[in-house]
Amino acid sequence: MKATKTAKTKKSKSGFAALVIPLALAASVCVFLFLMGDGSHFVGGDNHNANLPGDYFGIVYKGGFIVPLLMTLLLTVLVFVVERQLTISRAAGKGNVHDFVHKVKAYLAENNVEAAIEACDKQKGSVANVIRAVVVKYRVLESDTTMVKDQKLTSLQKEIEEATSLELPSLEENLVILATITSLATLMGLLGTVLGMIRAFAALANAGAPDSVALANGISEALVNTAFGIGTSVLAVIFYNFFTSKIDKLTYSIDEAGFSIVQSYAANHK
């Protein structure tokens, strides 16, 4: 039952991830063409001309076709930041995780299994689900007369590992996308920079007087894509490390509680 539930959850999240990127690309292309590329941002009302002085939409538009791709990466980062924050917050449960773990440890030290299960039901979330599964196993083993103590401790440890393997992978879902964008955004920005500089030098290489508009467009393309790519990459790095840190804290809380449950069983049962 647990495996089926987890499989369904992973499938729905994979579908969400597959839907976000195309929608972000479509939105980025629309913004690029119809908002940034609107003639009101350019001299003479034509987006083939230079942008109006100080018009940032026009400046960004001159970054070229790489801009909507970088915008797609930026929107993807923002969407998954919100999605991961909501998911990890739900996984932590309603109350403070540290206080919850210590409360469960205190109940088990008193051999009050029912109170520990009740605390898990109130806390909810992935951490509470793992601990509840182990505490329920704890209660079952208390009435089991077919196993010796060492076997029961091994069974408890196995239950901790199984419950953790079912709950925690969902916390790291989509983090690989943030990690990928960390490098991809920088590379895309550099690609835009190279293309912009090619255009700039091509303008200088024209016979006769250099094409000042083409030169300006080439330099704008280079600078805009560099800034966009680096900014997106920085954002992805910050939030990737932030979420990884939060997941590590939740994992530590589960490990701490699991160790405490095994030790409590060993101390309270002969």
Tell me about this structure:
Helix 6 runs parallel beside helix 9 (212-268) and helix 7 packs antiparallel against helix 9 (212-268). The protein has a domain at 97-170 and 255-268. It has helices at residues 2-36, 56-61, 66-92, 97-109, 113-123, 125-142, 149-167, 175-204, 212-268. The chain has 270 residues and is mainly α. The longest helix is centred in the last third of the chain and has 57 residues, at 212-268.
Q: Which structural class should the secondary elements be placed in?
A: mainly alpha
The percent of residues in helical segments reads over 70%
Q: H/E series, N to C?
A: HHHHHHHHH
Number of strands: 0
Count of alpha/pi helices: 9
Shape: rod-shaped
CA-based gyration radius = 28 Å
Largest sheet, in brief, is: none
Outline of this structure?
This protein is mainly α.
Reconstruct the topology from this structure:
Layout: H1 2-36, H2 56-61, H3 66-92, H4 97-109, H5 113-123, H6 125-142, H7 149-167, H8 175-204, H9 212-268
Helix pairs in contact: 1-3, 3-6, 3-8, 3-9, 4-5, 4-9, 5-6, 6-7, 6-9, 7-9, 8-9
